[in-house]
Amino acid sequence: MLQCYGIGVVWQKTEMTNVLCKGCTTLGENMSKQKLSAEEKKALAEQTKADKQAKKQANKTAKQQKRQQKRQARADAKQKRHDEAFARLTPDEQMEITLESIASLQQHNKKWYKLDNAALMYPMVSHGSSPAVFRLAVQLKEPVNPVVLQHALNDVYPRFPTICGTVVWGWFWPYVDKPASPIVVKKQKKVPGRPIAVDTRRSQIRVNYFGNQIAVEFFHSATDGTGGLIFLNSLLRCYFLRLGIDCERVNCCDHRDKPTLEEVRDNFGKIAVRKNPPPCPPVVKAKVIKGTILKNGKYTTYRGICSAKQLYDVAKAHNASVTEFLGAVQLLALNKLAQATNCRDKKPIRVLVPVNLRKLYNVETLRNFSSYIFYQYNGQTELKDVIADIQAQTKAQMTDDYFRGMVSFNYNSGNHPLLKPVPLPLKRLVVSSVVNGRGEGIVNGSILSNLGVVKAPKEFQDLVVRYEFTLGKPHRYTNCFSLATYNDVCVICIMSKYEEHDCEREFYTTLAKLGVDLTIESDIWEDEQ
Question: HSE of 395 in the Cβ direction (CA atoms, 13 Å)?
Protein backbone atom coordinates (compact mmCIF):
# COMPACT_ATOMS: atom_id res chain seq x y z
CA MET A 1 0.00 0.00 0.00
CA LEU A 2 1.29 3.43 -0.96
CA GLN A 3 0.03 6.46 0.83
CA CYS A 4 -0.16 9.68 -1.14
CA TYR A 5 -0.06 12.92 0.81
CA GLY A 6 -0.75 15.14 -2.19
CA ILE A 7 -4.47 14.85 -1.88
CA GLY A 8 -4.82 12.58 1.14
CA VAL A 9 -5.92 9.49 -0.75
CA VAL A 10 -4.33 6.05 -0.47
CA TRP A 11 -3.81 4.18 -3.68
CA GLN A 12 -2.90 0.51 -4.00
CA LYS A 13 -0.07 -0.37 -6.29
CA THR A 14 -0.25 -3.78 -7.75
CA GLU A 15 1.77 -5.61 -10.31
CA MET A 16 -0.77 -4.73 -13.03
CA THR A 17 -1.19 -1.05 -12.24
CA ASN A 18 1.02 1.86 -11.40
CA VAL A 19 -1.27 4.78 -10.70
CA LEU A 20 -0.38 8.05 -9.05
CA CYS A 21 -2.69 10.75 -7.89
CA LYS A 22 -3.06 14.01 -9.76
CA GLY A 23 -1.18 15.88 -7.07
CA CYS A 24 1.86 13.59 -7.36
CA THR A 25 1.77 13.80 -11.13
CA THR A 26 1.74 17.58 -11.01
CA LEU A 27 4.56 17.56 -8.48
CA GLY A 28 6.58 15.33 -10.77
CA GLU A 29 6.03 17.60 -13.69
CA ASN A 30 7.07 20.62 -11.66
CA MET A 31 10.24 18.87 -10.58
CA SER A 32 11.01 17.92 -14.18
CA LYS A 33 10.46 21.49 -15.29
CA GLN A 34 12.99 22.75 -12.80
CA LYS A 35 15.58 20.62 -14.53
CA LEU A 36 14.75 22.17 -18.00
CA SER A 37 16.97 24.87 -19.44
CA ALA A 38 15.69 28.41 -20.12
CA GLU A 39 15.37 27.80 -23.89
CA GLU A 40 13.45 24.61 -23.31
CA LYS A 41 11.17 26.43 -20.90
CA LYS A 42 10.57 29.13 -23.51
CA ALA A 43 9.83 26.59 -26.23
CA LEU A 44 7.50 24.72 -23.92
CA ALA A 45 5.64 27.95 -23.08
CA GLU A 46 5.29 28.82 -26.74
CA GLN A 47 4.04 25.35 -27.51
CA THR A 48 1.52 25.58 -24.69
CA LYS A 49 0.37 28.97 -25.95
CA ALA A 50 0.07 27.68 -29.51
CA ASP A 51 -1.95 24.71 -28.29
CA LYS A 52 -4.30 27.04 -26.43
CA GLN A 53 -4.71 29.27 -29.48
CA ALA A 54 -5.32 26.28 -31.73
CA LYS A 55 -7.88 24.97 -29.31
CA LYS A 56 -9.50 28.41 -29.12
CA GLN A 57 -9.55 28.73 -32.91
CA ALA A 58 -11.01 25.25 -33.26
CA ASN A 59 -13.77 26.15 -30.82
CA LYS A 60 -14.41 29.42 -32.69
CA THR A 61 -14.53 27.62 -36.05
CA ALA A 62 -16.91 25.05 -34.64
CA LYS A 63 -19.20 27.80 -33.36
CA GLN A 64 -19.08 29.61 -36.70
CA GLN A 65 -19.92 26.41 -38.54
CA LYS A 66 -22.77 25.81 -36.18
CA ARG A 67 -24.10 29.35 -36.69
CA GLN A 68 -23.67 28.96 -40.47
CA GLN A 69 -25.60 25.71 -40.40
CA LYS A 70 -28.40 27.40 -38.46
CA ARG A 71 -28.48 30.32 -40.91
CA GLN A 72 -28.50 27.93 -43.86
CA ALA A 73 -31.28 25.93 -42.25
CA ARG A 74 -33.32 29.10 -41.75
CA ALA A 75 -32.60 30.21 -45.34
CA ASP A 76 -33.61 26.80 -46.67
CA ALA A 77 -36.80 26.90 -44.66
CA LYS A 78 -37.53 30.43 -45.89
CA GLN A 79 -36.83 29.43 -49.49
CA LYS A 80 -39.06 26.40 -49.07
CA ARG A 81 -41.89 28.58 -47.77
CA HIS A 82 -41.27 31.02 -50.64
CA ASP A 83 -41.36 28.22 -53.21
CA GLU A 84 -44.53 26.82 -51.72
CA ALA A 85 -46.17 30.26 -51.75
CA PHE A 86 -44.89 30.89 -55.31
CA ALA A 87 -46.35 27.56 -56.44
CA ARG A 88 -49.76 28.58 -55.11
CA LEU A 89 -49.78 31.73 -57.27
CA THR A 90 -51.38 31.93 -60.68
CA PRO A 91 -49.07 31.96 -63.74
CA ASP A 92 -49.72 35.69 -64.25
CA GLU A 93 -48.77 36.45 -60.65
CA GLN A 94 -45.63 34.34 -60.97
CA MET A 95 -44.69 36.23 -64.13
CA GLU A 96 -45.19 39.58 -62.38
CA ILE A 97 -42.77 38.60 -59.61
CA THR A 98 -40.22 37.39 -62.17
CA LEU A 99 -40.43 40.62 -64.17
CA GLU A 100 -40.10 42.74 -61.03
CA SER A 101 -36.90 40.93 -60.05
CA ILE A 102 -35.44 41.53 -63.53
CA ALA A 103 -36.53 45.19 -63.52
CA SER A 104 -34.68 45.78 -60.25
CA LEU A 105 -31.42 45.45 -62.24
CA GLN A 106 -32.09 48.61 -64.29
CA GLN A 107 -29.16 51.03 -64.32
CA HIS A 108 -30.11 54.61 -63.59
CA ASN A 109 -28.67 57.68 -65.24
CA LYS A 110 -27.41 59.95 -62.45
CA LYS A 111 -28.12 63.18 -64.34
CA TRP A 112 -31.24 65.32 -64.11
CA TYR A 113 -32.70 67.24 -67.04
CA LYS A 114 -34.81 70.34 -67.56
CA LEU A 115 -38.20 69.86 -69.17
CA ASP A 116 -38.47 71.29 -72.65
CA ASN A 117 -40.67 74.33 -73.19
CA ALA A 118 -43.64 72.35 -74.54
CA ALA A 119 -43.37 69.71 -71.81
CA LEU A 120 -43.61 72.24 -68.97
CA MET A 121 -47.34 72.69 -69.52
CA TYR A 122 -48.39 69.07 -69.00
CA PRO A 123 -47.29 68.46 -65.39
CA MET A 124 -48.17 72.05 -64.42
CA VAL A 125 -51.86 71.56 -65.22
CA SER A 126 -52.11 67.98 -63.95
CA HIS A 127 -53.59 67.16 -60.55
CA GLY A 128 -52.15 63.82 -59.45
CA SER A 129 -52.61 62.34 -62.91
CA SER A 130 -52.76 63.70 -66.44
CA PRO A 131 -54.84 62.76 -69.47
CA ALA A 132 -52.06 64.01 -71.79
CA VAL A 133 -51.15 60.47 -72.83
CA PHE A 134 -50.59 58.77 -76.17
CA ARG A 135 -50.05 55.11 -76.95
CA LEU A 136 -47.86 53.38 -79.55
CA ALA A 137 -48.32 49.66 -80.12
CA VAL A 138 -47.08 46.98 -82.50
CA GLN A 139 -48.80 43.76 -83.43
CA LEU A 140 -46.23 40.98 -83.85
CA LYS A 141 -46.60 37.75 -85.79
CA GLU A 142 -45.52 35.70 -82.75
CA PRO A 143 -46.64 35.86 -79.10
CA VAL A 144 -44.63 38.21 -76.91
CA ASN A 145 -42.05 36.76 -74.52
CA PRO A 146 -42.40 39.06 -71.47
CA VAL A 147 -39.09 38.00 -69.87
CA VAL A 148 -37.14 38.87 -73.02
CA LEU A 149 -39.12 42.12 -73.31
CA GLN A 150 -38.17 43.09 -69.74
CA HIS A 151 -34.49 42.42 -70.46
CA ALA A 152 -34.78 44.54 -73.63
CA LEU A 153 -36.36 47.36 -71.61
CA ASN A 154 -33.46 47.16 -69.16
CA ASP A 155 -31.10 47.50 -72.14
CA VAL A 156 -32.66 50.70 -73.53
CA TYR A 157 -33.46 52.24 -70.13
CA PRO A 158 -30.19 54.20 -69.66
CA ARG A 159 -30.20 55.27 -73.35
CA PHE A 160 -33.40 57.34 -72.92
CA PRO A 161 -33.08 59.20 -69.59
CA THR A 162 -35.50 62.01 -70.52
CA ILE A 163 -38.18 59.52 -71.59
CA CYS A 164 -37.77 56.88 -68.88
CA GLY A 165 -37.29 59.43 -66.08
CA THR A 166 -39.92 60.85 -63.77
CA VAL A 167 -41.19 64.38 -63.21
CA VAL A 168 -39.86 65.86 -59.95
CA TRP A 169 -41.29 69.04 -58.45
CA GLY A 170 -38.58 71.61 -57.77
CA TRP A 171 -38.88 74.93 -55.94
CA PHE A 172 -39.45 76.89 -59.13
CA TRP A 173 -39.85 74.44 -62.03
CA PRO A 174 -40.48 70.71 -62.48
CA TYR A 175 -37.60 68.67 -63.92
CA VAL A 176 -36.80 65.11 -65.00
CA ASP A 177 -34.88 62.74 -62.72
CA LYS A 178 -34.60 59.00 -62.20
CA PRO A 179 -37.77 57.32 -60.85
CA ALA A 180 -37.81 55.76 -57.41
CA SER A 181 -39.34 52.56 -58.83
CA PRO A 182 -38.09 50.63 -61.88
CA ILE A 183 -40.18 50.27 -65.02
CA VAL A 184 -41.78 46.83 -64.95
CA VAL A 185 -43.31 45.28 -68.06
CA LYS A 186 -46.94 44.46 -67.26
CA LYS A 187 -49.64 42.43 -68.93
CA GLN A 188 -52.36 44.71 -70.30
CA LYS A 189 -55.24 44.34 -67.83
CA LYS A 190 -56.26 47.92 -67.17
CA VAL A 191 -57.64 50.60 -69.47
CA PRO A 192 -55.15 51.46 -72.24
CA GLY A 193 -54.26 55.13 -72.51
CA ARG A 194 -55.46 55.86 -68.97
CA PRO A 195 -53.95 58.90 -67.20
CA ILE A 196 -50.41 58.53 -65.84
CA ALA A 197 -49.77 59.60 -62.25
CA VAL A 198 -47.30 62.50 -62.03
CA ASP A 199 -45.08 61.74 -59.03
CA THR A 200 -41.46 60.90 -58.23
CA ARG A 201 -42.08 57.16 -57.91
CA ARG A 202 -43.22 56.34 -61.43
CA SER A 203 -41.70 56.81 -64.84
CA GLN A 204 -43.34 58.91 -67.54
CA ILE A 205 -43.99 55.77 -69.59
CA ARG A 206 -45.67 52.38 -69.25
CA VAL A 207 -44.69 49.22 -71.16
CA ASN A 208 -47.43 46.61 -71.60
CA TYR A 209 -47.94 43.38 -73.51
CA PHE A 210 -50.90 41.23 -74.39
CA GLY A 211 -50.84 38.23 -76.71
CA ASN A 212 -48.90 39.36 -79.78
CA GLN A 213 -48.96 43.06 -78.90
CA ILE A 214 -46.30 45.29 -77.33
CA ALA A 215 -47.50 48.76 -76.30
CA VAL A 216 -45.77 51.79 -74.78
CA GLU A 217 -47.83 54.59 -73.25
CA PHE A 218 -46.19 58.02 -72.90
CA PHE A 219 -46.97 61.00 -70.72
CA HIS A 220 -46.60 63.90 -73.15
CA SER A 221 -43.89 65.64 -71.09
CA ALA A 222 -41.56 62.74 -71.99
CA THR A 223 -41.67 63.19 -75.77
CA ASP A 224 -43.96 63.57 -78.77
CA GLY A 225 -45.09 60.96 -81.30
CA THR A 226 -41.84 61.02 -83.29
CA GLY A 227 -39.66 60.57 -80.21
CA GLY A 228 -42.00 57.85 -78.92
CA LEU A 229 -41.69 55.97 -82.20
CA ILE A 230 -37.87 56.04 -81.98
CA PHE A 231 -38.09 54.67 -78.43
CA LEU A 232 -40.49 51.88 -79.47
CA ASN A 233 -38.31 50.90 -82.44
CA SER A 234 -35.22 50.82 -80.20
CA LEU A 235 -37.06 48.62 -77.69
CA LEU A 236 -38.21 46.27 -80.48
CA ARG A 237 -34.71 46.08 -81.93
CA CYS A 238 -33.27 45.03 -78.54
CA TYR A 239 -36.11 42.54 -78.13
CA PHE A 240 -35.36 40.90 -81.48
CA LEU A 241 -31.59 40.98 -80.84
CA ARG A 242 -32.13 39.03 -77.61
CA LEU A 243 -34.14 36.51 -79.63
CA GLY A 244 -31.14 36.10 -81.94
CA ILE A 245 -32.51 38.20 -84.83
CA ASP A 246 -30.03 40.81 -86.04
CA CYS A 247 -31.62 44.13 -87.11
CA GLU A 248 -30.19 47.20 -88.77
CA ARG A 249 -30.43 50.58 -87.05
CA VAL A 250 -33.10 52.60 -88.86
CA ASN A 251 -35.18 55.22 -87.01
CA CYS A 252 -33.96 53.84 -83.71
CA CYS A 253 -31.00 54.24 -81.35
CA ASP A 254 -28.28 51.78 -80.37
CA HIS A 255 -28.76 51.08 -76.68
CA ARG A 256 -24.97 51.03 -76.16
CA ASP A 257 -24.57 54.68 -77.21
CA LYS A 258 -24.82 57.64 -74.86
CA PRO A 259 -27.47 60.36 -75.35
CA THR A 260 -26.24 63.28 -77.42
CA LEU A 261 -26.70 66.94 -76.48
CA GLU A 262 -29.11 67.63 -79.35
CA GLU A 263 -31.29 64.68 -78.31
CA VAL A 264 -31.87 65.87 -74.74
CA ARG A 265 -31.80 69.67 -74.87
CA ASP A 266 -34.70 72.08 -75.34
CA ASN A 267 -34.56 72.91 -79.06
CA PHE A 268 -37.44 75.41 -78.94
CA GLY A 269 -34.88 78.06 -78.02
CA LYS A 270 -33.38 77.65 -81.50
CA ILE A 271 -36.43 79.01 -83.28
CA ALA A 272 -37.84 81.34 -80.62
CA VAL A 273 -37.37 85.06 -81.33
CA ARG A 274 -36.49 87.02 -78.19
CA LYS A 275 -36.92 90.56 -79.49
CA ASN A 276 -39.79 91.66 -81.69
CA PRO A 277 -41.12 88.14 -82.40
CA PRO A 278 -43.82 87.54 -85.00
CA PRO A 279 -47.32 87.84 -83.52
CA CYS A 280 -48.85 84.76 -81.94
CA PRO A 281 -51.90 83.51 -83.86
CA PRO A 282 -55.12 84.80 -82.27
CA VAL A 283 -57.21 82.52 -80.07
CA VAL A 284 -60.38 81.30 -81.80
CA LYS A 285 -62.69 79.30 -79.57
CA ALA A 286 -64.24 76.17 -81.04
CA LYS A 287 -67.72 74.71 -80.92
CA VAL A 288 -68.27 72.42 -77.96
CA ILE A 289 -70.26 69.37 -79.05
CA LYS A 290 -71.86 68.02 -75.89
CA GLY A 291 -73.00 64.50 -76.57
CA THR A 292 -74.27 62.03 -74.00
CA ILE A 293 -71.28 60.98 -71.90
CA LEU A 294 -70.95 57.25 -71.25
CA LYS A 295 -71.44 56.32 -67.60
CA ASN A 296 -68.75 55.07 -65.20
CA GLY A 297 -65.95 56.74 -67.11
CA LYS A 298 -66.38 54.48 -70.11
CA TYR A 299 -65.04 55.31 -73.54
CA THR A 300 -64.88 53.52 -76.86
CA THR A 301 -61.91 52.88 -79.14
CA TYR A 302 -62.58 52.29 -82.86
CA ARG A 303 -59.94 51.05 -85.29
CA GLY A 304 -60.44 51.23 -89.04
CA ILE A 305 -57.84 49.07 -90.81
CA CYS A 306 -57.28 49.59 -94.52
CA SER A 307 -54.70 49.49 -97.29
CA ALA A 308 -52.43 52.53 -97.14
CA LYS A 309 -52.02 52.56 -100.92
CA GLN A 310 -55.76 52.45 -101.44
CA LEU A 311 -56.29 55.34 -99.03
CA TYR A 312 -53.52 57.33 -100.73
CA ASP A 313 -55.05 56.76 -104.16
CA VAL A 314 -58.47 57.95 -102.98
CA ALA A 315 -56.94 61.07 -101.39
CA LYS A 316 -54.92 61.73 -104.56
CA ALA A 317 -58.08 61.45 -106.64
CA HIS A 318 -59.42 64.37 -104.57
CA ASN A 319 -56.16 66.33 -105.14
CA ALA A 320 -55.34 66.23 -101.43
CA SER A 321 -52.82 64.72 -99.07
CA VAL A 322 -53.99 61.92 -96.77
CA THR A 323 -54.12 64.27 -93.76
CA GLU A 324 -56.11 66.91 -95.67
CA PHE A 325 -58.49 64.31 -97.05
CA LEU A 326 -59.13 62.68 -93.67
CA GLY A 327 -59.44 66.10 -92.03
CA ALA A 328 -62.20 67.06 -94.45
CA VAL A 329 -64.08 63.80 -93.82
CA GLN A 330 -63.62 64.32 -90.07
CA LEU A 331 -65.09 67.83 -90.18
CA LEU A 332 -68.18 66.57 -91.99
CA ALA A 333 -68.52 63.72 -89.49
CA LEU A 334 -68.25 66.12 -86.54
CA ASN A 335 -70.90 68.31 -88.13
CA LYS A 336 -73.13 65.21 -88.32
CA LEU A 337 -72.57 64.65 -84.59
CA ALA A 338 -73.41 68.30 -83.85
CA GLN A 339 -76.71 67.90 -85.70
CA ALA A 340 -77.50 64.62 -83.91
CA THR A 341 -76.93 66.21 -80.50
CA ASN A 342 -78.83 69.44 -81.38
CA CYS A 343 -75.75 71.52 -80.65
CA ARG A 344 -76.72 75.22 -80.61
CA ASP A 345 -73.20 76.55 -80.16
CA LYS A 346 -72.58 79.08 -82.96
CA LYS A 347 -68.79 78.81 -82.82
CA PRO A 348 -67.05 76.93 -85.68
CA ILE A 349 -65.98 73.29 -85.53
CA ARG A 350 -62.17 73.20 -85.28
CA VAL A 351 -59.76 70.29 -85.45
CA LEU A 352 -56.25 70.53 -83.98
CA VAL A 353 -53.58 68.98 -86.24
CA PRO A 354 -50.07 68.46 -84.73
CA VAL A 355 -47.10 69.38 -86.96
CA ASN A 356 -43.63 67.87 -86.61
CA LEU A 357 -41.13 70.77 -86.61
CA ARG A 358 -38.04 68.57 -87.02
CA LYS A 359 -38.21 68.54 -90.81
CA LEU A 360 -38.99 72.25 -91.06
CA TYR A 361 -36.02 73.34 -88.92
CA ASN A 362 -33.61 70.41 -89.45
CA VAL A 363 -33.50 69.31 -85.81
CA GLU A 364 -32.92 65.79 -84.48
CA THR A 365 -34.22 65.42 -80.95
CA LEU A 366 -35.97 62.88 -78.74
CA ARG A 367 -37.87 65.56 -76.84
CA ASN A 368 -41.01 67.44 -77.76
CA PHE A 369 -40.50 69.48 -80.91
CA SER A 370 -43.88 69.94 -82.53
CA SER A 371 -46.53 72.59 -82.93
CA TYR A 372 -50.02 72.56 -84.46
CA ILE A 373 -52.37 74.12 -86.98
CA PHE A 374 -56.17 74.07 -87.19
CA TYR A 375 -58.74 72.82 -89.69
CA GLN A 376 -61.92 74.88 -89.38
CA TYR A 377 -65.32 73.93 -90.76
CA ASN A 378 -67.05 76.85 -92.47
CA GLY A 379 -70.38 75.29 -93.44
CA GLN A 380 -69.60 73.57 -96.76
CA THR A 381 -71.62 70.48 -97.58
CA GLU A 382 -69.52 68.98 -100.38
CA LEU A 383 -66.32 67.12 -99.60
CA LYS A 384 -64.38 68.80 -102.40
CA ASP A 385 -65.30 72.24 -101.03
CA VAL A 386 -64.17 71.30 -97.53
CA ILE A 387 -60.88 69.98 -98.93
CA ALA A 388 -60.29 73.20 -100.89
CA ASP A 389 -60.98 75.27 -97.77
CA ILE A 390 -58.62 73.11 -95.67
CA GLN A 391 -55.86 73.47 -98.24
CA ALA A 392 -56.23 77.26 -98.17
CA GLN A 393 -56.10 77.24 -94.35
CA THR A 394 -53.04 74.98 -94.37
CA LYS A 395 -51.20 77.24 -96.81
CA ALA A 396 -51.90 80.26 -94.61
CA GLN A 397 -50.72 78.54 -91.42
CA MET A 398 -47.74 76.49 -92.60
CA THR A 399 -45.39 79.47 -92.55
CA ASP A 400 -42.24 80.31 -90.63
CA ASP A 401 -43.86 83.36 -89.01
CA TYR A 402 -46.83 81.28 -87.80
CA PHE A 403 -44.68 78.71 -85.98
CA ARG A 404 -42.06 81.18 -84.74
CA GLY A 405 -44.83 83.42 -83.40
CA MET A 406 -46.46 80.55 -81.52
CA VAL A 407 -43.17 79.11 -80.20
CA SER A 408 -41.82 82.56 -79.24
CA PHE A 409 -44.96 83.38 -77.26
CA ASN A 410 -44.69 80.17 -75.21
CA TYR A 411 -40.89 80.24 -74.87
CA ASN A 412 -40.59 83.90 -73.92
CA SER A 413 -43.49 83.60 -71.46
CA GLY A 414 -41.85 80.66 -69.70
CA ASN A 415 -38.46 82.40 -69.55
CA HIS A 416 -39.67 85.84 -68.50
CA PRO A 417 -37.33 87.34 -65.83
CA LEU A 418 -40.25 88.20 -63.56
CA LEU A 419 -41.62 84.64 -63.72
CA LYS A 420 -38.42 82.77 -62.88
CA PRO A 421 -38.28 83.62 -59.12
CA VAL A 422 -41.99 82.90 -58.60
CA PRO A 423 -42.57 79.74 -56.50
CA LEU A 424 -43.90 76.71 -58.32
CA PRO A 425 -47.42 76.67 -56.75
CA LEU A 426 -48.08 80.21 -58.01
CA LYS A 427 -46.72 79.29 -61.45
CA ARG A 428 -49.15 76.39 -61.62
CA LEU A 429 -52.07 78.71 -60.91
CA VAL A 430 -50.99 81.06 -63.70
CA VAL A 431 -50.38 78.27 -66.23
CA SER A 432 -53.70 76.60 -65.36
CA SER A 433 -55.60 79.82 -65.96
CA VAL A 434 -53.87 80.28 -69.34
CA VAL A 435 -54.60 76.67 -70.41
CA ASN A 436 -58.22 76.99 -69.34
CA GLY A 437 -58.50 79.89 -71.74
CA ARG A 438 -56.70 78.43 -74.75
CA GLY A 439 -56.12 74.75 -74.06
CA GLU A 440 -57.51 71.50 -75.44
CA GLY A 441 -61.27 71.47 -75.69
CA ILE A 442 -61.38 75.29 -75.86
CA VAL A 443 -59.68 76.13 -79.15
CA ASN A 444 -60.53 72.79 -80.74
CA GLY A 445 -63.38 70.31 -80.72
CA SER A 446 -61.32 67.37 -81.94
CA ILE A 447 -57.79 66.22 -82.82
CA LEU A 448 -56.32 64.62 -85.94
CA SER A 449 -52.80 63.30 -85.40
CA ASN A 450 -51.12 61.52 -88.33
CA LEU A 451 -47.90 59.75 -87.41
CA GLY A 452 -47.29 59.12 -91.09
CA VAL A 453 -45.51 56.17 -92.67
CA VAL A 454 -43.48 54.44 -89.96
CA LYS A 455 -39.79 53.98 -90.73
CA ALA A 456 -38.29 50.87 -89.15
CA PRO A 457 -35.51 48.31 -89.78
CA LYS A 458 -36.26 46.19 -92.85
CA GLU A 459 -36.12 43.02 -90.71
CA PHE A 460 -39.32 44.21 -88.97
CA GLN A 461 -41.32 43.50 -92.15
CA ASP A 462 -41.20 39.75 -91.46
CA LEU A 463 -41.85 40.17 -87.73
CA VAL A 464 -44.36 43.03 -87.34
CA VAL A 465 -47.93 43.04 -88.67
CA ARG A 466 -48.85 46.67 -88.00
CA TYR A 467 -48.29 49.74 -85.86
CA GLU A 468 -51.07 51.47 -83.92
CA PHE A 469 -51.09 55.07 -82.71
CA THR A 470 -53.84 56.14 -80.32
CA LEU A 471 -54.31 59.19 -78.16
CA GLY A 472 -55.34 58.95 -74.52
CA LYS A 473 -58.78 59.11 -73.03
CA PRO A 474 -60.60 62.11 -74.57
CA HIS A 475 -60.30 65.24 -72.48
CA ARG A 476 -63.40 67.36 -71.97
CA TYR A 477 -65.76 67.32 -74.97
CA THR A 478 -63.42 66.11 -77.70
CA ASN A 479 -63.06 63.14 -80.03
CA CYS A 480 -59.53 62.02 -80.82
CA PHE A 481 -58.55 60.80 -84.30
CA SER A 482 -55.10 59.31 -84.98
CA LEU A 483 -53.46 57.07 -87.55
CA ALA A 484 -50.20 55.31 -88.41
CA THR A 485 -49.11 53.39 -91.51
CA TYR A 486 -46.68 50.50 -91.80
CA ASN A 487 -46.09 47.92 -94.50
CA ASP A 488 -49.19 49.08 -96.45
CA VAL A 489 -51.41 48.68 -93.36
CA CYS A 490 -53.03 51.91 -92.17
CA VAL A 491 -54.84 51.92 -88.80
CA ILE A 492 -57.19 54.89 -88.22
CA CYS A 493 -58.19 55.11 -84.53
CA ILE A 494 -61.01 57.11 -82.98
CA MET A 495 -61.43 57.61 -79.22
CA SER A 496 -64.88 58.68 -78.07
CA LYS A 497 -66.70 58.90 -74.74
CA TYR A 498 -70.14 59.63 -76.24
CA GLU A 499 -73.08 57.26 -76.43
CA GLU A 500 -73.84 58.66 -79.89
CA HIS A 501 -71.93 56.91 -82.69
CA ASP A 502 -72.95 59.28 -85.49
CA CYS A 503 -69.48 60.76 -85.89
CA GLU A 504 -67.64 57.44 -86.17
CA ARG A 505 -70.34 55.89 -88.38
CA GLU A 506 -70.32 58.89 -90.74
CA PHE A 507 -66.51 58.95 -90.89
CA TYR A 508 -65.98 55.28 -91.74
CA THR A 509 -69.06 55.11 -94.00
CA THR A 510 -67.81 58.05 -96.07
CA LEU A 511 -64.42 56.39 -96.52
CA ALA A 512 -66.08 53.13 -97.57
CA LYS A 513 -68.35 54.90 -100.10
CA LEU A 514 -65.31 56.62 -101.62
CA GLY A 515 -63.60 53.28 -102.27
CA VAL A 516 -61.58 52.53 -99.12
CA ASP A 517 -62.04 48.91 -97.97
CA LEU A 518 -62.15 48.94 -94.16
CA THR A 519 -62.08 46.39 -91.37
CA ILE A 520 -63.58 47.89 -88.20
CA GLU A 521 -62.58 46.85 -84.68
CA SER A 522 -63.92 48.37 -81.48
CA ASP A 523 -63.36 48.11 -77.74
CA ILE A 524 -65.26 49.66 -74.86
CA TRP A 525 -63.31 50.37 -71.71
CA GLU A 526 -64.32 51.35 -68.22
CA ASP A 527 -62.12 53.22 -65.76
CA GLU A 528 -61.23 51.32 -62.59
CA GLN A 529 -61.94 53.54 -59.63
Answer: 7
